[in-house]
Design a protein that fits this description.
Radius of gyration: 30 Å
Number of domains: 2
Strand order of the largest sheet: 3-4-7-6-5
Number of strands: 7
Shape: elongated
CATH class of the largest domain: Alpha Beta
CATH topology of the largest domain: Beta Polymerase, domain 2
Strand content: 15-25%
Structural class: alpha+beta
Order of helices and strands: HEEHHEEHEEEHH
Helix content: 25-40%
Length: about 190
C-alpha cells in the first residue's frame, strides 16, 4: 500500500503508518471481513493526481457506532387537511353513503394524512357519491381531485392530495377488506 505524504505547507504532518499486507495463508473469510479502517486518497480536481493528494483515514468502527438519524415524526394535520376531511365526510353523509370509516394514516404511510372508506348501495350510487365529493372539494377550493374507477362503479378511488377516499359497493368492500389492512391491530384471519 502506498502512503502519500501531505505537502509541506507549514502545517504539522499527520502521523501515518503503513498497513502490513495480509499473510499469504489468510483465509477467504478473513479477506471478506469488514476492515476496521479504510484509507482513501483525496485528489484535487485541478491538480495532477500525485501532486496534491491528501490522505484521509476513516475509522469504520466509529462510523458504525454513530447513532443513526431518525426521521422526524409526522406533524399533526393542518387545519386545511382537517377541513378537507370534514367536508368529505359531511358530503358522503349528506348523500346517504353507508358505513363511513376514517383512518388516520400518520406514521403508517406518506401517501396521505387520512383515508376515508365508504359504501354505496349500488354502482350507480358509488359513482354519484364520487361526483358529489369531487364537486364539493372543487367548490371549496381545497385542491384538485383525481378519480379512478368511475366507469365501472364497483370501487372508486378519489385522490384529494391529503385525503384518499375509497367508495365501494358492499360486496366489493367485503371482498377486499381494505380497512383491515390499514388498521394498527390487523391480524390475518385464522382458519
Amino acid at each position: 500500500m502506498t502512503v502519500v505524504a501531505p505537502e509541506a505547507t507549514g502545517e504539522p504532518k499527520k502521523k501515518t503508518r503503513k498497513v502490513a499486507a495480509a499473510p499469504a495463508e489468510a483465509t477467504e473469510a478473513e479477506a471478506l471481513a469488514k476492515p476496521k479502517r479504510i484509507r482513501l486518497k483525496k485528489v484535487a480536481a485541478e491538480a495532477e493526481p500525485a501532486a496534491d493528494a491528501t490522505l484521509i483515514t476513516v475509522d469504520m468502527e466509529a462510523e458504525r457506532k454513530k447513532p443513526r438519524k431518525t426521521k422526524p415524526k409526522k406533524a399533526a394535520p393542518s387545519d386545511s387537511v382537517r377541513a378537507l376531511l370534514d367536508l368529505i365526510v359531511k358530503t358522503l353523509d349528506d348523500n346517504k353513503a353507508e358505513e363511513i370509516l376514517t383512518i388516520d394514516l400518520a406514521g403508517k404511510s406518506s401517501i396521505a394524512d387520512f383515508m376515508v372508506i365508504a359504501n354505496g348501495r349500488s354502482g350507480r350510487q358509488v359513482t354519484a357519491l364520487a361526483d358529489y365529493v369531487v364537486k364539493a372539494v372543487d367548490e371549496a377550493k381545497l385542491g384538485p381531485c383525481r378519480t379512478e374507477g368511475k366507469s365501472a362503479g364497483d370501487w372508486v378511488l378519489i385522490d384529494a392530495n391529503d385525503v384518499i377516499v375509497h367508495l365501494f359497493r358492499p360486496e366489493v368492500r367485503e371482498f377486499y377488506k381494505l380497512e383491515k389492512m390499514w388498521q394498527a391491530d390487523f391480524r390475518p384471519d385464522v382458519e
